[in-house]
Amino acid sequence: MNLPSKETLERIYGESERSLARYQSLAENFWKNFAPEKKDAAECEMTFFTAPGRTEIVGNHTDHNGGKILAGSISLDTIGAACPSGTDVITIVSEGYRDRIVVDLTRLDRVPKNRGSFSLVAGMAMAARKMGFAVSGFNAYVSTEVISAAGVSSSASFEMLVCAIMDEFFNEGRMQCIDYARIGQYAENHFWDKASGLMDQMACAVGGTILLDFARIAGAPTSAEDVQSLTDDDICRQVDFSFSQLGYDLVIVNTGKGHADLSDEYSSVPMEMKEAAHALGAGLLCETNEEALLAHISDIPNDRAILRALHFFEENKRVDAAYQAALDRDCATLLKMIEESGRSSWEWLQNCYSIRNYKEQKVNLTLALTKLFLDRTGKGVCRVHGGGFAGVIACILPQEETENYVSYIARYVGRENVYPMNIRTFGAGKVE
């Protein structure tokens, strides 16, 4: 059986025994679903892929207005076994889901919107073709450990896995990470009615810790000519950094409330930031500045739009400081920026709970409980993680306190909802 080598798995996951068992199960399920009577042929053609989830370190809700973000890929990932089908049909079996995803590439214009992964895959195929890339049929079996609907980008992880498959099978590895990201963004914007930026996809595609600056491509169209003129270097700079280098762990805590039904809340953030930008004569906030905003506050009747715009400008400053702190291994400054980012997200951005259901504040409650623990230990910080309104929080604390915190917070959310993790260096791609 052509499974990934132990050396490859050690490089990606930091271990090989557990991950090897995952890929063994993946291969067996691929054969059962796509080649029950042709196991030898399937074994020769089958290729393995991986795409991680992501963590946002500093830079909450800035990408869609041309802002900056310090982000990283995480050790939780989506993996797939796939092979070209020789047809015009993409078929994906996703572990834990009853229905197959079946997309006829000759009928993309007839695919309904907002039908989950089915619509996303069709949207990605359409976007790839619009951008000048080749797309043909393939079969894939997919399994994921990325927490669903909880702020670590399970959807982007899945999207980047599909992009890696399309790149490997049909485009000879010509696609850049920014191409992956734009394909995923197009699918979410046009086939899922989600006004997402590019941060989730870039962080899942590139791997490791990265500084993202979206000002240079903010609002850029997705025609083949324009996209081909862009490179990963236009928006992305890799940073040799992980929390473990500082003796700290990242712990993601699922608060118990998913965010799948909160699209309107998420969409209101970029729209209100743009509302503030328009009042200043700009299309996006990256095209103006904080001084202009302060000079024209009376021209903006929406107070929340002003607060969200102020968050944007101050958050960009925090990203710059956090990036330099990561380079310098300056733990105190980095933690300070993370804590300030979380406080600004809570108070100014206001994405810790939905005002439509103000009695349910799982994010705020879990942050409060975590703060009580951290105050007793005197070290570590916590913050809302990802899109917010529901989902998860992040806690960064010394490694010697990790197990104590896990035991403590598990009393309130359940051990199955607490995820100690690392930043991994391997992004979306083929697993040799």
Question: What's the topology here?
Answer:
Elements lengths: L5 H8 L3 H18 L4 H7 L1 E12 L9 E17 L4 E6 L6 E4 L12 H14 L7 E7 L9 H17 L6 H15 L7 H8 L2 E5 L10 H5 L7 E4 L8 E7 L8 H17 L10 H6 L7 H26 L2 H19 L12 H16 L3 E4 L7 E7 L3 H12 L4 E4 L7 E3 L1
Parallel strand pairs: 3-5
Antiparallel strand pairs: 1-2, 1-12, 2-5, 2-6, 3-4, 6-7, 8-10, 8-11, 9-10
Helix pairs in contact: 4-5, 4-6, 5-6, 5-7, 6-7, 9-11, 11-12, 13-14
What does this molecule look like?
- Strands 1, 2, 3, 4, 5, 6, 7 and 12 form an eight-stranded mixed beta sheet that branches.
- The protein is of the alpha+beta class and 432 residues long.
- Helices cover 44% and strands 19% of the residues.
- The two termini are 13 Å apart.
- It contains 14 helices and twelve strands.
- The longest helix is centred in the last third of the chain and has 26 residues.
- Helix 5 packs across helix 6 and helix 9 packs across helix 11.
Percent in strands? 15-25%
Number of helix segments? 14
Mean pLDDT: 91
C-alpha Rg (nearest Å): 21 Å
End-to-end span in angstroms? 13 Å
- Bin the helical content: 40-55%
Structural class call reads: alpha+beta
Task: Please provide the ordered H/E string of secondary-structure elements.
Answer: HHHEEEEHEHHHEHEEHHHHHEEHEE
Main sheet makeup: 8 strands, mixed
The coarse silhouette is globular
| Poorly predicted runs | 220-225
The tally of strands reads 12
